[in-house]
Amino acid sequence: YLEPTFSAIKSIPSLAWIPLLLLWLGIDEGSKITLIAIGAFFPTYTNTVAAIHNVDKKLIEVGKVYRLNAFQRIISIILPAASPGILTGLRNSLSLSWMFMIAAELIAATQGIGYLLSDGRETSRPDIVIIAIILLALLGKVTDTLMKLIENWLLGWRDTLQK
Questions:
Q1: Res 2: pLDDT
Q2: Mean pLDDT over residues 135-151, rounded?
Q3: What is the four-CA torsion angle of 157, 88, 139, 15, rounded to 10 degrees?
Q4: Is the pLDDT of residue 157 over 60?
Q5: Which pLDDT tens digit goes with each residue over 35-76?
Q6: What torsion do the CA atoms of 77, 83, 84, 88 make, to the nearest 10 degrees?
Q7: CA–CA distance, 98 with 40 (Å, rounded to integer)
Q8: Residue 159 reports pLDDT greater than 80
Q9: SS3 for the chain, per residue?
Q10: What confidence score (pLDDT) does residue 163 get?
Q11: Would you state the torsion angle of the CA atoms of residues 99, 112, 144, 8, taken in this order, to the nearest 10 degrees?
Q12: Cα 84–88–46 angle (5° rounding)?
């Protein structure tokens, strides 16, 4: 039921929401957190929908043979089968969250990595800009590695090429 609406909203570039968020929520943290949430939501949503649609119908049939009700099929079959795609969407969203955090801090921040980038540009200090970029790369790598470890732990039951 929500697919047409989400598809339409997904087509809007996330940064286009900035003026509306500033009008509705002001320049404080609420607009920044909302921008990050909007930017991070759609990769997870898209991957989740695709992963659920790609669950093998034979698995669903097995659930019906075992007389699992709809809720049991969702918990026992659909979520485990779709979990690799869902977790991939979460990893993509995590990396995009860093990008949107920087965009949100560029709006009107007085601290943070986005502020460092902006301040380094305004004061013609490439060293500050480079340090901020390196810091972003390190933070992105650390969070992606943590998410990969969580993914491996949650999906340890799979028999796959990469473990």
A1: 80
A2: 93
A3: -160
A4: yes
A5: 899 989 999 999 999 999 999 999 999 999 999 999 999 999
A6: 160
A7: 9
A8: no
A9: CCHHHHHHHHCCCHHHHHHHHHHHHCCCHHHHHHHHHHHHHHHHHHHHHHHHHCCCHHHHHHHHHCCCCHHHHHHHHHHHHHHHHHHHHHHHHHHHHHHHHHHHHHHHCCCCHHHHHHHHHHCCCHHHHHHHHHHHHHHHHHHHHHHHHHHHHHCCCCCCCCC
A10: 54
A11: -30
A12: 100
Are 117 and 132 spatial neighbours (Cβ–Cβ below 8 Å)?
A: yes
SS3 track for 54-84: CCCHHHHHHHHHCCCCHHHHHHHHHHHHHHH
What is the C-alpha separation between 35 and 16, in angstroms, rounded?
A: 10
Is the pLDDT assigned to residue 148 strictly greater than 70? yes
